[in-house]
Amino acid sequence: MTDEQGIAMKVYNGFSLALEILVLYIKMTLTWFHCLYQFFVPPEPKSVKGEIILITGAGHGMGRETALRFGKLGGIIVCVDINPTGNQETVDMITEQKGKAHRYECDVTDREAIAVLAENIRREVGEVTMLVNNAGIMPCKPLLQTSEKEIRTSFEVNIIAHLWLLQTFLPSMMERNHGHIVAMSSMAGVVGLRNLVPYCATKFAVRGLMEALHEELREDKTKDYSGIKFTVICPYIVDTGLCKNPKVKFPTLMKILTPQEASDQIVDAVRRNYNEITIPSSLYYINLICRVFPKQVPLYLKDFLDSGLEADP
């Protein structure tokens, strides 16, 4: 290659890089304005009529309330819980509202049991098109007082079960490029909280799992998976029975929500295809702003609010 050709190649490469950067800047700017527009003008809620919606932990709390709301909207609800009594109560409540619901008992930490569950659902109901990973447990005590069994069970229920369920139900969604994955994280998956060290670890993991899975499908060059949506839910304190000893300094600002209030926001977020929400929504923006500052600054705010969970009695 002559000197002239080398110079020309460098000029060409520089021009190409500058053009790529310009296109990137335009894309990022337009996307920013589009997101700003959607903040003030939210997208229209999508219909879930006819969707086969599997909800784990459907026998009580937010799982039950979310199932009831999706049932009212015309979804075909697959209620999965380890407690047959509570699970049947949820099914009865849905059918009393003229909805469609099916009951299955399953230990979601058991991979083989999930495989049997999936086969039964496919045969008796159809292919699951929406998966709501809601089941969870929350031992609340200092780390050094938490037993090995409590730690292992927390991880098995709160995060490993998500992986087994995804490996089981995601393939059919990928085949049709249609589906929605909903994962229950927590504000304890956004900020670390005392008395909840293993729980925080599992809920941080849920957010990482969902982000990584989204990228795995988005970056796949062999097929378009844009029809599969992902939503992560990060509630603050919800009165489901798990939070036995909450501590709230400013109840009007940091209100303890009922399962009904939380489920209203969950269903709305799913229908609008939001990627992640906190409940209440203000915490999402407070967290984003606080992350900009040095670590000690948001800690002052956290100490001022003085909210969280005391150890279980």
UniProtKB/TrEMBL annotation:
Q: Name one GO molecular function term.
A: all-trans-retinol dehydrogenase (NADP+) activity
Cross-referenced CDD domains: 17beta-HSDXI-like_SDR_c
Q: Which domain of life is it from?
A: Eukaryota
- Which InterPro entries does the protein's record reference? NAD(P)-bd_dom_sf, Sc_DH/Rdtase_CS, SDR_fam
Give the UniProt subcellular location, in the record's own words: Membrane
Keyword flag Ligase = no
- Keywords, comma-separated and alphabetical: Lipid metabolism, Membrane, NADP, Oxidoreductase, Transmembrane, Transmembrane helix
User: Which Gene Ontology terms of cellular component type are present?
Assistant: lipid droplet; membrane
Tell me which Pfam families the record gives: adh_short
The record's PROSITE patterns line, in alphabetical order, gives:
ADH_SHORT (PS00061)
Query: Could you list the residue ranges that cross the membrane?
Result: 12-33
SUPFAM superfamilies in the record, alphabetically?
Answer: NAD(P)-binding Rossmann-fold domains (SSF51735)
PANTHER family in the cross-refs: PKSB (PTHR24322), RETINOL DEHYDROGENASE 10 (PTHR24322:SF736)
Q: What does this protein do?
A: Catalyzes the reduction of all-trans-retinal to all-trans-retinol in the presence of NADPH.
Q: Which family does it belong to?
A: Belongs to the short-chain dehydrogenases/reductases (SDR) family.
The protein here is known as Short-chain dehydrogenase/reductase 3
Gene from which this protein is expressed = LOC111353515
